[in-house]
Specification:
heterodimer, A: about 625 residues, 2 domains, two-stranded antiparallel sheet, globular, B: about 190 residues, alpha+beta, Immunoglobulin-like, six-stranded mixed β-sheet, five-stranded mixed β-sheet, 3 helices, 11 strands, about 30% strand
């Protein structure tokens, strides 16, 4: 019971916060004679989140210090340490991974509901409102999963280990970034109770200004999630810059770390835009300000602001997945990562280009025609640095000594799926074809190929790869192979079939459609159920192996990166003997390249010494 | 690429029990250069060029005088058509939208002021443009074949931007007829 105290305290303080904030809002609304419900919800929610954070442990570990009182912060302990404000990045990583996995499964079940409805052309299982809410919830939950799993989950757990650090640069901010996520999930799951929202996760106004209260809950949730994203990005960048082990120069950084750094640059700078867009919608709702409706307002303003974030956001999703994919390919191919420096430059170019292509989502929106050409060409150019990532994967695999374990199978899945996803994107980048295909199922299939086929397969690759390190147990390889095989086949049938109705004129976000499209929808639905089933061996494997699996050795993959040179799982301070880096991590087949030496010094890792006063003294 | 991966997985598989590493090739500037050059050329020739020329083709008719102008207004969840200066079809999805063949038709599209964003999409013509409250957008279509919704469901107007409850039902059936037949039809309607 005591183990749940932080959560209970968080809930109680949240309720108190809501009462205070709601009360203030009600008072103000009474003075202005405006309806009070939505201001109460907004201000109540803000105070509730603060209360929640304080209750789960932020007050004890951080808040007390603001008033000069002693703080207590003990990240060690049994399983109850995962249920409170804990500053250990490994705990936070697991908190993210487990929460995100649960959201993924829930959103996946919603998808099963959607596919049940879509298997037949009429309006069957769901009412129209429920369909729209289900579809919108599936969208935003999966977007949240996609943004958070690689950065918050694996980025948090593995990145400090990969650079030989003891923890991230700002451990308390790290914990804060995680603990704003449960309110996001609660709000989203509550929204159907309050009327749902029928706008899709894109929430275009004026519709999103007019939707019921459920829509406001969604807008608040998305805003909150943005806070997590921004703080997380900040933390990752600061950590990689300042916490690298001695003599880990930029050229020796594992590619996953570069990928996470690149994604963090986007996360830190682009997320603010979706916040502005959502704030404007909320202000239209509660203050009657005019941004998006005539006279005086323009709905396209929101569309631009929204996509200015949401396009770079997809690179937050895919870059870490590319990083994990390349990392895994190299270690399982027993060969150095091919064209490493080119890949780093490719990541940088992708980040830069990602900010100047957003309007390809707006080709049919009525925006100025002079914008079409430039955005089309810039979008098409992104294929070139993305191609370098593929070159690196193929170049590493060629003449390798490939160990076909499940992490590698998923990494190969990323290469295959993203090829299809990327190629279909070309049709959407071209204005003329996009005009035909925009808002059809072609788009839906395209982004499922890139986000699910690319990033989620990458997340499973990372999940299996780092499972022994995180849990200290080995998963069952055979069961994992069944998961991969079934998932890969069912996934591809589901989404390849989806392209077909898209090209012949079925639009998206509809429950009822012309009967001519029924056959391929049925195929998609059946395969989707198969896809859902394929996750069962995965869930069983993850849970069963964690409890009963064989203990994992420190380095089951015989890989050279730093996380494998410590115990599984690592001790609180990550390394018993801290590494001093002497080469990069890809020295396969080359005895002269040694990644690190150990035991030269203990304690925190800072002060990278760039070559002068060479090696530390012997026997330190 | 798929063939290459398939080949790699079979040919370069580590034999069971083999612990040796592969030869440490880190980069190969010639291959990287070749790949970059090839992907850039592909990008320019197969992607950028058709995109650019397609765009020019698309905008070709913008300055031309259309044979017929139809002003379209969307609101939840119907379309209204005004055949400019001739006949107005009020908000109902039961009537058909009749259009003449072999004509340049310009659609001026908007949505009612207090309504939401819709999108005016005709699958058979592969053209769409959003209907935004407070803005008037346009879309040009050159009709080239006769068609009727009952023979081909692509001959319909379908709203292509989620607009709430009845978004999936916001469509109008289309018929494209010979210009003479169209003139007859509209004369009847205007009477």
């Amino acid at each position: 019971m005591a183990s749940f105290m932080p959560l209970i305290r968080g809930a109680i303080y949240a309720a108190i916060g809501f009462a205070i904030g709601g009360g203030i809002a009600q008072g103000i609304a009474a003075l202005t004679n405006e309806p009070a419900t939505e201001p109460i919800v907004v201000l109540g929610y803000v105070f509730a989140v603060i209360g929640w954070l304080m209750g789960v442990g932020m007050w004890k570990t951080w808040g007390d210090g603001w008033f000069g009182k002693p703080t207590e912060n003990d990240p060690t302990g049994n399983w109850s340490r995962y249920l409170k404000f804990n500053t250990d990045h490994k705990v936070i990583g697991i908190q993210y991974i487990v929460t995100i996995a649960v959201v993924f499964i829930l959103a996946g079940l919603l998808a099963m509901l959607l596919r049940t409805e879509l298997a037949d052309a009429g309006q069957n299982v769901l009412t129209k409102t429920n369909y729209n809410t289900t579809m919108s919830l599936h969208g935003i939950m999966m977007v949240a999963v996609a943004v958070a799993i690689m950065m918050g989950g694996f980025g948090n757990y593995v990145m400090p280990l990969l650079i030989g650090a003891e923890d991230v640069a700002f451990p308390r901010i790290n914990a804060l970034s995680f603990w704003v996520v449960p309110p996001v999930v609660v709000l989203l799951l509550l929204s159907p109770v309050f009327g749902g929202f029928d706008t899709g996760w894109t929430a275009y106004p004026p519709l999103s200004v007019q939707t019921p209260l459920g829509g406001l809950l969604f807008e608040l949730a998305f805003l909150t999630f943005g806070i997590s994203s921004i703080l997380g990005g900040l933390n990752i960048i600061a950590t990689i810059i300042t916490q690298r082990a001695p003599r880990m120069t930029w050229g020796r950084l594992p590619i996953f770390v570069w990928a996470v750094l690149a994604a963090s640059v986007i996360s830190l700078t682009a997320t603010q835009w979706i916040a502005y867009g959502l704030l404007m919608i909320i202000f239209e709702r509660i203050f009657n300000m005019v941004f998006f409706s005539p006279p005086g307002g323009n709905a396209l303003l929101y569309e631009h602001v929204f996509w200015f974030y949401s396009h770079p956001a997809i690179y937050i999703m895919i870059l870490p997945a590319f990083g994990a994919e390349l990392e895994i390919i190299s270690h399982f191919a027993r060969k150095p990562l091919f064209a490493y420096r080119w890949v780093v430059w490719a990541f940088a170019l992708i980040v830069a280009l990602s900010f100047v292509v957003w309007a390809h989502h707006l080709f049919t929106s009525g925006m100025g025609e002079s914008l079409h050409g430039p955005f089309m060409i810039l979008t098409e150019l992104i294929s070139i640095p993305t191609g370098i990532v593929f070159l690196s994967a193929l170049g590493t695999l060629w003449r390798s000594k490939l160990r076909l374990k499940v992490p590698l199978l998923f990494a190969l899945g990323v290469v295959f799926n993203f090829s299809i996803g990327g190629l279909t994107g070309i049709f959407l980048a071209d204005v003329a074809t996009d005009i035909a295909l925009q808002d059809t199922y072609f788009v839906v299939a395209h982004f499922h190929y890139t986000i699910m086929g690319g990033e989620i397969f990458g997340a499973f690759a990372a999940g299996y790869y780092w499972y022994p390190k995180i849990t200290g147990r080995m998963y069952n390889e055979t069961l994992a192979r069944y998961h991969f095989g079934l998932m890969f086949i069912m996934y591809n049938i589901t989404f390849l079939a989806m392209f077909i109705p898209g090209t012949v004129g079925m639009n998206r976000r509809v429950a009822e459609y012309p009967p001519e499209f029924e056959f391929w929808n049925l195929v998609t639905s059946i395969a989707a159920f198969g896809l859902g089933l394929s996750f069962l061996p995965w869930v069983y494997n993850m849970l069963n192996s964690w409890i009963r699996g064989p203990k994992a050795p420190d380095n089951p993959w015989d890989a050279k990166t730093l996380e494998w040179q410590t115990t599984s799982p690592p001790p609180l301070e990550n390394f018993e003997d801290f590494p001093t880096v002497t080469g990069d991590a890809y020295g396969y087949g080359d005895d002269l390249v040694v990644h690190a030496v150990y035991g030269l010094r203990k304690g925190e890792g800072v002060n990278v010494n760039f070559g002068h006063n060479a090696a530390p003294a012997e026997g330190d | 690429m798929v063939t290459m991966i398939g080949y790699i997985v079979i040919k370069f598989r580590a034999k069971p029990g083999e612990i040796e590493d592969a030869a440490p090739t880190r980069t190969h500037t010639k291959w990287v250069g070749f790949w970059l050059a090839w992907t850039t050329i592909l990008c320019l020739v197969v992607i950028v060029h058709p995109g650019y020329t397609g765009l020019i083709e698309l905008r070709k008719t913008a300055a031309d005088e259309p044979d017929l102008t139809v002003n379209v207004t969307g609101r939840r969840w119907q379309w209204m058509y005004e055949y400019e200066g001739r006949y107005v079809s009020l908000f109902t999805n039961d009537e058909m939208l009749v259009l003449p063949n072999d004509s340049l038709i310009r659609f001026n599209v908007t949505a009612e002021d207090q309504d939401v964003v819709h999108s005016f999409w005709i699958p058979a013509f592969r053209m769409k443009i959003d209907a935004v409250p407070g803005l008037t957008t346009y879309m040009d279509v050159n009709t080239t074949e006769i068609g009727h919704f009952n023979d081909d469901v692509n001959f319909r107007v379908q709203c292509a931007e989620l607009c709430g409850l009845d978004h999936s039902l916001m469509f109008t059936r289309i018929e494209v007829v010979e210009p003479a037949e169209f003139e007859q039809w509209i004369a009847e309607k205007a009477a």
